[in-house]
Write a structure and sequence with these properties.
four-stranded mixed β-sheet, alpha+beta, single chain, UDP-n-acetylglucosamine1-carboxyvinyl-transferase, Chain, about 30% helix, about 450 residues
């Protein structure tokens, strides 16, 4: 890595912080904008590396983009290319979702296997199967690493489709195809995270006809999408548990603005059970340390369960709790990349394989196909550990944030290599932490 965060731990973080726009909304609405006729204006777009990479990708395909002060305007009148390069796709996983605008606009698309954080196999077979239901002929060329596809008719065909297991990106991609399909579509067993609601609101504001709830959507295809007014995306609810963990791990007190308790209710409920300080208001939520935390046992699940993105920060909190805690990961098969790094700081964590009677119904991936190099699906955390400084390496975005939290409550200095990975999803996190009293600096070219 050529960049790092250097953190001096031991200071309680105190103050206020405003959440940035949601990364997982921003990327999807930018891609959905490429389906529109005319220009599109988006507000509250976070200034993060993933957004910068996506903007660079679409600019390289002739699209005019203006991005300033969290306002993004897109004019895709010169969008002409139908192939995404290997290097472009390697930088950002959502490049795979460009199948929707490319196929709908041009009838063909060539896109390589997607990049982004490697949290296990993250198979895209569900997305491929769904696209076939909309009339897409798609094949994988193993010799080149590209998916090559064509649309069999001028527009996607309306279809009835049920996902074998809910998929966040698969649901969003299906909504894009269905919005401009010829005829009506019914999509069942969808993911139903709040971020998907933002995408639906965005498409409907432009003329789409999407109705749905409880994981099912009914869509009547329209001939075009046109923006009549700017669209403002929601704040990033994944940032809130991160800063909550910063507050409590550092024995501090942080008021997080721009978040409702409803959007992170599962996290709040677990934190209350463990003894974390919480005060809910109409403008945000105060998280504060009010004494020794209690151990917990939790299982990650799709929304509305405890999110997989929250388990890294939670693991750090449990290193400071009283007793032995467990975390069972069921969404991804390789989400514990931070564990070996936390051990370098003195954390006492061990892997174990939980007994599961019906693994196919519990795990969101195919447990039988799990990579032999993947560790077990659960960890056991011995609480009450005094963490110390060390030199760490970031394995993925959320793991990087978790290491920052650990460094904040560790004694001495910690160097976290891979600052740019954290910056993929957290806007100016070092500046926000400095405003809360942290001793942190970013360095380049280590």
């Amino acid at each position: 890595m050529h960049d790092a965060y250097i953190v001096q731990g031991g200071q309680p973080f105190k103050g206020e912080v405003m959440l940035s726009g949601a990364k997982n909304v921003a990327l999807k609405v930018i891609i959905a904008s490429l389906l529109f006729d005319g220009s599109v204006e988006l507000n509250n777009i976070p200034q993060i590396n993933d957004v910068d990479e996506l903007i660079g990708l679409i600019r390289s395909h002739g699209i005019k983009v203006s991005y300033k002060h969290h306002r993004l305007t897109i004019d895709n009148n010169n969008f002409t290319q139908t192939e995404i390069g290997m290097l472009e796709a390697a930088k950002i996983r959502v490049s795979f979702m460009l199948f929707a605008p490319l196929l709908i606009r041009f009838g063909r698309a060539t896109i390589p296997n997607p990049g982004g954080c490697r949290l296990g196999a993250r198979p895209i077979d569900r997305q491929v199967d769904m696209m076939k239901a909309f009339g897409v002929d798609i094949n994988y060329d193993s010799s080149s690493g590209y998916y090559r596809s064509t649309l069999k008719s001028r527009r996607p065909k309306g279809t009835a489709y049920r996902f074998f297991k809910p998929t966040h990106t698969g649901t969003e991609l299906a909504l894009m195809f269905a919005a401009l399909a010829d005829g009506e579509s019914r999509i069942d067993n969808c993911a139903h995270e709040p971020e998907i609601d933002d995408l639906v609101a965005f498409l409907n504001q432009a003329g789409a006809k999407i109705k749905g709830s409880q994981g099912s959507f009914d869509i009547t295809g329209v001939s075009s999408l046109v923006m009549n007014q700017p669209f403002t995306i929601s704040n990033d609810r994944n940032e809130a548990p991160t800063f909550a963990a910063f507050a409590i791990a550092s024995k501090g007190d942080i008021f997080i603005k721009g978040i409702s308790a409803h959007s992170i209710s599962t996290f709040i409920n677990e934190l209350k059970k463990s003894g974390g300080g919480i005060e809910e208001t109409t403008s945000g939520i105060r998280f504060y340390y009010k004494g020794q935390l209690k151990a917990s046992n939790l299982i990650t699940r799709p929304h509305p369960g405890f999110m997989t993105d929250w388990q890294g920060p939670w693991a750090v909190l449990m290193t400071q709790a009283n007793g032995v805690s467990t975390i069972h990961e069921t969404v991804f098969e390789n989400r514990f990349g931070y564990v070996s790094e936390l051990k370098k700081l003195g954390a006492q964590i061990e892997y174990y394989e939980p007994k599961v009677d019906e693994p196919e119904s519990i795990y969101q991936f195919n447990i039988a196909d799990r990579d032999i190099d993947c560790a077990s699906q659960a960890i056991r955390i011995i609480g009450g550990t005094d963490l110390h400084g060390g030199v760490l390496n970031v394995t993925d975005l959320r793991a990087g944030a978790s290491l920052l939290i650990a460094a904040s409550c560790a004694s001495g200095e910690t160097v976290i290599n891979g600052a740019s990975v954290i910056d993929r999803g957290y806007e100016n996190i070092d500046k926000k932490l400095l405003s809360l009293g942290a001793k942190i600096k970013k360095v380049q070219n280590l």
